[in-house]
Amino acid sequence: DEAISAYRQAIQIEPKYDYAYVGLGDALYDQKKLDEAITAYHQAIKIDPKYAYAYRRLGDALGEQKKLDEAIATYRKAIEINPKLTFVYNNLGVALDEQKKLDEAIAVYRKAIEINPKLTVAYYNLGVTLSKQKKLEEAITAYNKAIKIDPKFVSAYKKLGLVLRIKNKLNEAITAYNKAIEIDPKDTNSYVELGDTYSKQRKLEEAITAYNKAIKIDSKYAEAYVGLGDAY
Fold first, then answer.
1. 135 φ, ψ to 5°?
2. 174 neighbors 160 (Cβ within 8 angstroms)
3. I need a surface site. Which of 127, 171, 187, 210 has the fewest CB within 10 A?
4. Segment 12-23 mean pLDDT
5. Whole-angstrom Cα distance, residue 200 to residue 227?
6. Across residues 68-89, what is the average pLDDT?
7. Using an 8 Å Cβ cutoff, are 93 and 125 in contact?
8. Mind listing the pLDDT tens digit for each residue in 164-198?
9. For residue 116, what pLDDT is reported?
């Protein structure tokens, strides 16, 4: 609220201050006031039609509203203005993925990685989309690259574990889930996924222990009880 007030004060003093509108939009976005954020981003773009970051953030807000066609068009405009904005490619890929345009999403993630080979989120999202196409070995490679860059990327370990489990590489999957738990010991989903993997190995005592740890963290986690019931 204080940030919003400060940005509005700046705009009152200087109505053509495009950066202040973007800052206002970002603060409103963080409050989930998406319509107001979109208005602010549009105002920044009206002042400076070449403000690539404003297009990026407008695309993010439109994407949150599931206005995917508009979000995609907006991201493409940002890229047209500044082809080096790697996060725009990444977010464009997410929107394309949501539209089931998986080949286009993969191409966009690869472009982001080409520009910035250390963009962990692009490797992660690439892995997610490749998994949807059943290209599991390629997905494993993508997740491992994300982890190599950021060894504390919990979600990448979890997705890696899931793909390894599908591939029936169960010991490797257990290693991935245990690494996720080591980084975030309160992640109930990791314990459930670990329990499911132990169950697949018929190591039921280990599975029961994993499910019970999830329940200890969140006593209302239904999936943990289901797994526990199956293990018993």
1. -90, 75
2. no
3. 171
4. 96
5. 11
6. 97
7. yes
8. 999 999 999 999 999 999 999 999 999 999 999 99
9. 96
As a whole number, the mean pLDDT across the chain is: 97
Q: Is the dihedral of CA 202, 205, 210, 215 positive or negative?
A: positive
* DSSP secondary structure letters along the chain: -HHHHHHHHHHHH-TT-HHHHHHHHHHHHHTT-HHHHHHHHHHHHHH-TT-HHHHHHHHHHHHHTT-HHHHHHHHHHHHHH-TT-HHHHHHHHHHHHHTT-HHHHHHHHHHHHHH-TT-HHHHHHHHHHHHHTT-HHHHHHHHHHHHHH-TT-HHHHHHHHHHHHHTT-HHHHHHHHHHHHHH-TT-HHHHHHHHHHHHHTT-HHHHHHHHHHHHHH-TT-HHHHHHHHHH-
What's the rounded mean pLDDT across residues 147-173?
98
Q: 215 and 226 in contact (C-beta within 8 Å)? A: no
pLDDT of residue 188: 96
pLDDT score for 129:
98
Neighbouring C-beta atoms of residue 47, cutoff 10 Å: 17
Alpha carbon 33 to its chain's center: 20
* pLDDT reported for residue 220: 95
Residue 111 tokens, joined: 């472009």
Please report the pLDDT score of residue 170 as a whole number: 98
